[in-house]
């Protein structure tokens, strides 16, 4: 069978990249890979530990390396971390290795979905809303510039989002 282009999910924390990625991969009978999960497995430590010990810059280097490796695969669904679009190299590598889907959500939805989260170092502070709003301003244009397709995830459940992605990538 010919290699099919990868499907790459980008978007902010709490957009549903992992949940939707898993469902999407099952729907298309493809393998699902989550960049954050692969980084943690490789490092043998969780993301808070990596941020603590190596700083955000150390995490970003690991993320860039992981994106390079994941981009060599074919026929897979890849979920990236919310900050993957910050580096120009990552944006280029992701665009070159498949169809990029921006899972758009609102800050209000992010706040709800990440309320009890302890695994995202950038949100372990009292001014989470302010942090998410600043990230939105900085990153939304980068997600848009990188994506082939934009899909809202704040107005319906993951199953409906998956159906829309399948419909639009098969066009
Ligand atoms: C980050 C998002 C996280 C993770 C890390 C940094 C970000 O991934 O990569 O905590 O900068 O937005 P999720 O988007 O999967 O939460």
Automatic annotation (TrEMBL):
Q: Can you tell which superkingdom this protein's organism belongs to? A: Bacteria
The EC number of this protein is 2.7.1.71
Q: How is its cofactor bound, per UniProt?
A: Binds 1 Mg(2+) ion per subunit.
Give the family per the record: Belongs to the shikimate kinase family.
- What's the source species' lineage? Bacteria, Pseudomonadati, Pseudomonadota, Gammaproteobacteria, Oceanospirillales
Task: Kindly list the cofactors needed.
Answer: Mg(2+)
Q: Which gene encodes it?
A: aroK
Binding residue positions for Mg(2+): 18
User: InterPro entries from the entry?
Assistant: P-loop_NTPase, Shikimate/glucono_kinase, Shikimate_kinase/TSH1, Shikimate_kinase_CS
Organism (species): Halomonas nitroreducens
How it assembles, according to the record, is:
Monomer.
Pathway note: Metabolic intermediate biosynthesis; chorismate biosynthesis; chorismate from D-erythrose 4-phosphate and phosphoenolpyruvate: step 5/7
Q: Which Pfam families match?
A: SKI
Q: Matching Gene3D superfamilies, A to Z?
A: P-loop containing nucleotide triphosphate hydrolases
The keyword Nucleotide-binding is assigned to this record: yes
| Single GO biological process annotation from the record | aromatic amino acid family biosynthetic process
Q: What is this protein called?
A: Shikimate kinase
Recall the GO molecular function terms of this protein's record: ATP binding; magnesium ion binding; shikimate kinase activity
What does this protein do, in the record's words?
Answer: Catalyzes the specific phosphorylation of the 3-hydroxyl group of shikimic acid using ATP as a cosubstrate.
């Amino acid at each position: 069978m010919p290699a099919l282009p990868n499907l790459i999910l980008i978007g902010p924390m709490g957009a549903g990249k992992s949940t939707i990625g898993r469902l999407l991969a099952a729907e298309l009978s493809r393998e699902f890979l989550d960049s954050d999960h692969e980084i943690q497995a490789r490092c043998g430590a969780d993301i808070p530990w990596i941020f603590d010990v190596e700083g955000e810059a150390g995490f970003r280097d690991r993320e860039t390396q992981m994106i390079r490796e994941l981009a060599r695969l074919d026929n897979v669904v890849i979920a990236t971390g919310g900050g993957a679009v910050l580096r120009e190299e990552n944006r280029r590598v992701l665009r070159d290795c498949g169809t990029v889907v921006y899972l758009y959500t609102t800050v209000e939805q992010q706040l709800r979905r990440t309320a009890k989260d302890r695994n995202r170092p950038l949100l372990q502070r009292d001014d989470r809303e302010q942090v998410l709003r600043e990230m939105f301003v900085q990153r939304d244009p980068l997600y848009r510039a990188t994506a082939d397709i934009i899909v809202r995830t704040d107005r319906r459940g993951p199953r409906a989002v998956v159906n829309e992605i399948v419909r639009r990538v098969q066009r």
